[in-house]
Structure formats: structure tokens, C-alpha cells
Amino acid sequence: MFILESKAQLEKAIAKAMKTRTTVKFIAFGVYQVSGSKGNFYTVECKKIGNEKQVSCECLGASKGLVCYHAASALSLHVGLAKQRQTATK
Ligand SMILES: [Zn+2]
Fold first, then answer.
1. Ligand 1 centroid to 79 CA: how many Å?
2. Do residues 8 and 19 touch, judged by C-beta distance below 8 A?
3. How much distance in Å is there from the Cα of 42 to the middle of ligand 1?
4. For residue 18, what is the DSSP state?
5. Res 74: pLDDT
6. Are the C-beta atoms of residues 71 and 44 closer than 8 Å to each other?
7. Residue 88 above 90 pLDDT?
8. Whole-angstrom Cα distance, residue 13 to residue 48?
9. Where are the alpha helices (DSSP H) in 26-68?
10. CA angle 47, 50, 51 (to 5 degrees)
11. The model's pTM
């Protein structure tokens, strides 16, 4: 699990996600499954607790607090959905 503070944190992970061509499956708002390098899927959860954006992924890297490319892939979808929601409720 890591706390998302800035987009800069994600840059490397996003670059890797693009190279790896991940598949992101929508499970629910804030819950996604992202394909791993071995054809497996990792569940990524994006939560907002107070002002903190918490992102967790099942992979080994994320369990050590690293920003993994699964999380970056899920976040790119999540951020888009969150924006749609905001505009829908306004
Ligand atoms: Zn991961």
C-alpha cells in the first residue's frame, strides 16, 4: 500500500505499464484487476481516506510500499471515472 501524493510518483510506473500493455478490468468503483507479467491478475484498490489517497495492490512490490505499474494502470482508469462522477453530481 502507498499514499498517492503527486503524479510524479507514478511517472516511471506509467511508462512501464505502457510498455507492458496491461489490461485493466473494472470490478467496482475503486476496485480494479490489472494483468501481471505472467498473465495473472492483481487486484488494485484505490481509496480516499480523508485527504489521503491510498492505493493498494496485491503484488510483491506494492507490499513493500513501491508504486507498481498495476497501481498506475488502475489509477489512470480510476482518475477518469472519479472525474466523470464529479461532473455528474454537479
Ligand atoms: Zn502491483
1. 17
2. no
3. 6
4. H
5. 97
6. yes
7. no
8. 20
9. 60-63
10. 90
11. 0.89
Segment 25-46 shows an average pLDDT of 96
Q: Which residue has the cell 475503486?
A: 30
The percentage of the chain sitting over the pLDDT mark of 70, rounded to a whole number, equals: 98
pLDDT tens for 6-35 read: 889 999 999 999 999 899 999 999 999 999
Q: Is residue 83 over pLDDT 80?
A: yes
Cα(49) to centroid(ligand 1), Å: 20
CA of 90 to the centre of ligand 1 (A): 33
Going by C-alpha positions, the residue among 79, 36, 78, 26 that lies closest to residue 61 is 36
Q: How far apart are CA 8 and CA 24, in angstroms?
A: 21
CA of 86 from ligand 1 middle (Å) equals 27
CA of 26 to the centre of ligand 1 (A): 16
Q: Percent of the chain having pLDDT more than 90?
A: 83
Q: How many angstroms separate the CA atoms of 16 and 75, rounded?
A: 14
Please tell me what DSSP assigns to residue 39: S
